[in-house]
Write a structure and sequence with these properties.
This protein is an all-alpha fold and about 90 residues long. The chain is built from three helices and no strands.
Length: about 90
Amino acid sequence: MSFLPAFSQEKGTGPKEKSIKSERKLQKKAKFEAREKRRKERAEKKAIKKHHKRLQTKKVRKRMKRSKNQSNLNNDNRREPFFKRIFKKKKRKK
């Protein structure tokens, strides 16, 4: 019979196992960083949009608002409001 030496894995060559606490800590830190990054990106987009809107004149801002509302209605496949349909200028026949 030949005996193979049995070594305990005190000095393992593989990767060390992480404790549950340290894993949770790392996940929490990663989650916080991702949330912070997302918050900064949103704030930047909002600032760009606000600056673009501020450059426009009052008439243009009103027109932009009307066209935005109209496009939302069209995208939702909804009809024009009742009073707008009734009191709309009629198209003349030639």
